[in-house]
Every structure is written in structure tokens, then in C-alpha cells.
Amino acid sequence: MPGYAHSLPEDRMKTEKIYLKPGELFLSEKPSLVTTVLGSCVAVTMFSQKCKVAGICHALLPRSPSSGEAFRYVDTSIYYMLGKLQMLGAKKEEIEVKLFGGANVLDYSNERSSVGQSNVEAAISIIKAEKLTMIACDVGGNRGRKIVFDTCRGRILLKRIKGRPSW
């Protein structure tokens, strides 16, 4: 049928489905659908259309101490992903970056800066310093987000999560 887009069962079977937990990072040269759920954490995606490589991180805190789990932090996650994509042939100027999350889900309105806001600020600072191209950004607010990252096309499906957690 002309103009009708569909995927064949074998195409869907070739696509790996991944659930990315907080503090994890995923890089791929193969078709994958990576799902993660964000509150104050941020997800940064990187995609090179030319090289067909992609990466996504789910970072909990803005800056890494000298030791610890590197992918828990925005700074070390971004630098690691960028380095790996470049090793796989991607050039900085062709990498598309997207940023999501950083919500103030627990409503600490008395705080000067929430963890979510600090995560977003750290990510934006590094993206600018590295002269990367950010083509999409959905951050802040008081609702979490569920995202699905298509590593083959660099696309994101985003769903905002309703309401706050109740105690």
C-alpha cells in the first residue's frame, strides 16, 4: 500500500529492547529501543546519523567525585559517551544531543536549587563547553518522564508521568 509505513515482524525481532536503570549508560551500533524513567535524574542522548552510533545515559547527580560509579554522574557520563562515539568515527559537529528530565518531583520549593535543576545545569554547561549541537530539550517541571530512545533513528518517544508520588 503506497504511503503506508509498517514494520515487518523480522524487523521488530532484530531490535533489542533495553531498560536503562539509574546510573547506567548504553552505547549501540545496532537497532535498540532503550527505555528509562526519569524524575530529578537526567538522560542525555547522543546520535550520529552518519556513523549510525548512539548513546544514552541516566545520571543521578551533576558532578563526579574523584572515585565512585562514573555513570551515576552527568559530567563523567557525557564525557564518556562523547569519547566513545568519537572512537567509533563520529565527529562532534555531527552528533545530535538531546536532554531530558531534571524534574523537581519532590517539590523542595524552599531549596535554592533542586537536584534536578543542578543536573540540567551541569548537562547544559558541558554540552555548550564541548560545542555539541543540542536539538531537543525537555527538562524541569514537577513531573517525571518516561522516554524510549530509538538508537537506529535517534528519535525519542516521551511521556510525562502524571502526578507526584504519594506517601
Which key features would you list for this structure?
globular, 21% helix, 5-stranded mixed beta sheet, alpha+beta, 167 residues
Largest sheet: 5 strands, mixed
Mean pLDDT: 88
Overall outline: globular
- What's the structural domain tally? 1
Report the count of strand segments.
Answer: 9
The amount of beta strand, in percent, is 25-35%
Radius of gyration: 16 Å
Tell me the name of the CATH class: Alpha Beta
pLDDT under 50 segments (min length 5)?
Answer: 1-10
Order of helices and strands: HEEEEEHEHEEE
The number of helical segments is: 3
Label the structural class: alpha+beta
Quote the CATH topology.
60s Ribosomal Protein L30, Chain: A
Calculate the terminal CA-CA distance, rounded to whole Å.
52 Å
Based on the coordinates given, report the CATH architecture: 2-Layer Sandwich
Can you give the helix content as a percent range?
Answer: 10-25%
Strand order of the largest sheet: 2-5-4-6-7
Can you describe what's shown?
This protein is α+β, with helices and mostly antiparallel strands. It has one domain: 60s Ribosomal Protein L30, Chain: A. The protein is 21% helix and 33% strand. It has helices at residues 9-14, 74-87, 115-129; strands at 16-19, 25-28, 32-38, 42-48, 53-59, 95-101, 133-139, 145-150, 155-160. α2 runs parallel beside α3 (115-129). The radius of gyration is 16 Å and the shape is globular.
